[in-house]
Write a structure and sequence with these properties.
Largest sheet: 7 strands, mixed
CATH topology of the largest domain: Cytochrome Bc1 Complex, Chain A, domain 1
CATH superfamily of the largest domain: Metalloenzyme, LuxS/M16 peptidase-like
Structural class: alpha+beta
Shape: elongated
Helix content: 40-55%
Oligomer: single chain
CATH architecture of the largest domain: 2-Layer Sandwich
CATH class of the largest domain: Alpha Beta
Strand content: 15-25%
Number of strands: 23
Strand order of the largest sheet: 2-1-11-12-10-13-9
Number of helices: 25
Number of domains: 4
């Protein structure tokens, strides 16, 4: 992109002119503070900034002049006319210099060949600046030409004056006729004096010293009567006709924000213009994707300003135009507020900008503008002022653009929606930990999945985690795949000099970008699905897939959230994209383990919330659970590879969404499990004849959650003894059903569960998941409650048995 010289006190611009629809914004810098010494001139002289640099074929001298508050109703005419006057006066003296004027100031720059040449040009420039305007002087012809050219570039709408002041663009406004000599002289006297002029030089030390000496030997400069700068507009929303400015049926949104300092305005511009930044990615995820056309940050004598311009294409506004425009506008305004509030101005940002200037004239000009902008203290206003302008153009079909009242009402509703948190946040501060942990997931879990798409949610989580991992740096990312939640877990330490809030925002942004904003990369989706398919063919997964099909016939992923072979094989790219879109649409819940303080935790939740798209009136909710078919009790067979140990699963289905039954099932499983549990007594002991134990290994646990869960006993043993182990376990469960549980069994279960909770409390991931789930503390059921549960759920005719045996070797006998 070609870099342009702007007429305003421009500090940073991004993608302003010549941007096609496919071009990304490209950053360029146009206005720092001094990079070398700022001379302390004698009283009555303008501030001088020296940019000391070697190697240039010539040095440069620049002068910046502010016209803020002078004939503000005439737009850029004041600065353009004064720039033309001084440029022509110098040309008439044989000095080649260029002067450019804008809405709120103008600047002059010239190459200088030697210290003597620099002093000569400085003296001539002072004379051209301070010479009164005569009614017959030749320079007035140049003023008239420049005024006529400016008149051909009028401000599109008078309501856009605040935007023009922010960007410093050269627009005509009000009376565009050339000024009279008397009027021009009035402007000259008001602008060309101390407090409104800054000088800068770029070159070697000898050149800088010569300019400083020459400036010190000039006569004192006049001090004009103070002219109050033009007032910044209050927070407002302007709707204007943009036909001719944008394509028919399209729209343009401009958000301006006045920052406390120019340095802060410059600091936020790169983040707003970053094609992989929060703003661009959030806009791309809207129903009507908006494109960042430009980001311009400017320095002014009373602070800084940022102007963000977005374009929305006509096809995307063919329906629901007011709502779509309003959503993009509200999002952009929110992102601007966040960046200005959180952005940190680099103390050497201006110096770096000047050092990057290849041409010494650019370096001098930037230094002069920055010195002028920093000549007054920042505004005392503690909050940035934001203003919004929306331009809409009539479509070619003759369909009218949205009415201003309808747009304002839609913008108000959208702003309210963006101010209201949409993500459910749960946070806990764990001071002194080495990392911040965050879990972002859909609490709908696998509920939306049926038999034919079991594993879609797991694919989304795995692909999102892989996508986040590629950008995570020293953070760690893993998928969260659970019947109750589909999402990502991210954790990592703070980086050197990173504040706790910045640390939390970085971790939160990683999670939210991957799960709630950025479309999934098809290559990562394919890789995730391949990995899940490989896992689904393993023996344990196959067993539990068959069990899930019996416990929840139409919804196996409610019990096995990683999916089934059939569901994963059936998953198309479009189906995964639709599932990812449903996850992004909400609801979403975030849990944070902050390692610093409550402010850090709140920053993480807020950072996630800002990424989640929303529409006025929308309230994300999980799909209703359909009426379930009853579990299919019986015995099921699974073939295993030759040589694999035989296994069996014996399961008792739990009633859907029954918290009391789940608590009781956990206690019964704990009583059965362990080296001294009821299963060990039934399966591990040798008989009097020394017969081997019936199983090599066993366990009991509760799997699944919510609408589909089961108490599951797993047995592993030799093929010849598996049937006996199953029979013995069924007999044990029948005895438990008939009241065999004793107080000592309950006490042992309590100890087992307590040990499990203690182990989980040592694992930050387990603590994070518990926080996300928000389950109340576990209360051990009474013995009567355990017996009542066993009597209702452990009936032998209601058990589901999955027996898995290795295939036969040819010629072998059972």
């Amino acid at each position: 992109m070609k870099q342009r010289r702007r007429a305003g006190l421009l500090a940073m611009g991004l993608a302003a002119a010549g941007c096609g629809a496919s071009r990304a914004p490209v950053a360029h810098t146009v206005g720092p503070r001094p990079v070398a010494a700022v001379a302390a001139p004698d009283a009555g002289r303008p501030k001088l900034t020296s940019v000391v640099r070697d190697g240039d074929g010539a040095g440069a001298l620049a002068i910046a002049v502010s016209t803020e508050g002078i004939a503000d109703d005439r737009g850029a005419l004041v600065a353009v006319a004064l720039a033309a006057l001084v440029e022509e006066r110098l040309a008439n003296r044989g000095i080649e210099a260029s002067a450019v004027g804008g809405w709120n100031g103008w600047r002059l720059r010239a190459l200088v060949a030697s210290p003597g040449d620099a002093a000569r040009i400085l003296f001539a420039a002072r004379e051209a600046l301070l010479q009164p305007v005569a009614g017959d002087e030749p320079a007035l012809a140049a003023v008239a030409r420049k005024a006529a050219a400016l008149a051909r570039h009028p401000l599109p709408d008078t309501s856009l004056r605040g935007i023009a002041r922010c960007t410093g663009e050269a627009y005509a406004s009000g009376d565009a006729s050339p000024p009279s000599p008397t009027e021009l002289e009035t402007w000259r006297v008001a602008a060309h004096g101390l407090g409104r002029i800054a000088v800068a030089v770029a070159g070697d030390a000898g050149l800088a010293g010569a300019v400083a000496d020459a400036l010190a030997h000039t006569a004192p400069w006049p001090r004009p009567s103070p002219t109050p700068p033009a007032l910044w507009p209050d927070d407002s929303t302007v709707i204007y006709e943009a036909s001719g400015e944008v394509a028919p049926g399209a729209a343009r949104i401009v958000v301006t924000a006045r920052a406390l300092t120019a340095a802060r305005a410059v600091a936020v511009a790169p983040a707003l213009g970053d094609t992989r930044g929060a703003l661009a990615l959030r806009l791309a995820g809207l129903d009507a994707p908006a494109r960042v056309r430009s980001v311009i940050a400017t320095a002014h004598v009373d602070g800084g300003c940022v102007a963000l311009t977005l374009d929305l294409a006509a096809p995307d506004l063919a329906s629901s135009a007011p709502e779509r425009i309003a959503t993009a506008a509200a999002l952009a305004r929110q992102e601007m507020s966040v960046e200005i509030a959180d952005g940190a101005a680099r103390p050497d940002g201006a110096d770096e900008s000047a050092r990057r200037a290849a041409d010494p004239r650019d370096a001098a000009e930037r230094a002069a503008w920055w010195a002028l902008a920093s000549s007054r203290g920042p505004s005392s206003d503690p909050e940035p002022r934001l203003a919004l302008a929306v331009g809409v153009a009539t479509a070619r079909s003759g369909v009218e653009a949205p009415k201003a009242d309808a747009l304002r009402a839609a913008i108000d509703r959208a702003a309210l929606a963006w101010r209201s948190p949409i993500v459910e946040g749960r946070a806990r501060v764990e001071r002194g930990q080495g990392e911040t942990w965050l879990l972002l997931a859909s609490p709908c879990g696998t509920r939306p999945e049926a038999f034919g798409d079991a594993g879609l949610g797991a694919t989304v989580a795995a692909a999102a985690a892989a996508q986040a991992e590629s950008e995570a740096g020293d953070a760690r990312v893993e998928p969260f795949i659970d019947a109750e939640g589909i999402g990502v877990v991210i954790h990592g330490p703070a980086r050197p000099a990173e504040t706790p809030v910045a640390h939390a925002r970085r971790i939160a942004d990683l999670a939210a970008r991957a799960l709630a904003a950025i479309p999934l990369d098809p290559a990562r989706v394919d890789a995730a699905r391949t990995l899940l398919l490989a896992g689904s063919t393993e023996a344990e997964s196959r067993l539990f897939a068959v069990l899930a099909g019996a416990v929840a016939p139409e919804h196996p992923s409610w019990l096995t959230p990683s999916g089934t072979v059939f569901g994963l094989m059936s998953a198309t790219a479009d189906a995964v994209a639709t599932r990812a879109g449903a996850v992004r649409a909400g609801p979403l819940r975030v849990a944070v383990l902050a390692d610093a303080d409550a402010t850090q935790a709140a920053a993480a939740v807020s950072a996630v919330d800002r990424w989640v798209a929303r529409r006025p009136g929308d309230a994300g909710s999980c799909p209703s659970v359909p009426t379930l078919s009853s579990p299919r009790a019986g015995t099921y067979a699974v073939d295993l590879p030759i040589g694999a140990p035989s296994e069996a699963l014996i399961a008792a289905a739990l009633p859907p969404d029954d918290a009391a039954a789940r608590r009781a099932a956990l206690a019964v499983a704990a009583a059965l499990d362990g080296p001294d549990g009821l299963l060990a007594r039934a399966l591990a002991a040798e008989d009097d004849a020394g017969a081997p134990r019936l199983a090599r290994a066993w366990s009991a646990n509760v799997v699944g959650a919510g609408p589909a869960a089961a108490l599951v006993v797993r047995l592993v043993g030799a093929d010849g003894s598996l049937d006996s182990a199953v029979a013995q376990t069924r007999a044990l469960l029948d005895r438990v059903r008939q009241g065999a549980l004793r107080d000592e069994d309950r006490a042992r279960a309590d100890a087992v569960l307590a040990r499990a909770r203690a182990a989980g409390a040592l694992d930050p991931r387990a603590r994070l998941v518990d926080l996300w789930r928000g389950e109340p503390p576990y209360v051990l059921p009474s013995l009567d409650e355990l017996r009542s549960f066993a009597a209702a759920r452990l009936r032998d005719d209601g058990l589901i048995i999955v027996a898995a045996r290795p295939g036969r070797v040819a010629g072998a006998r059972r």
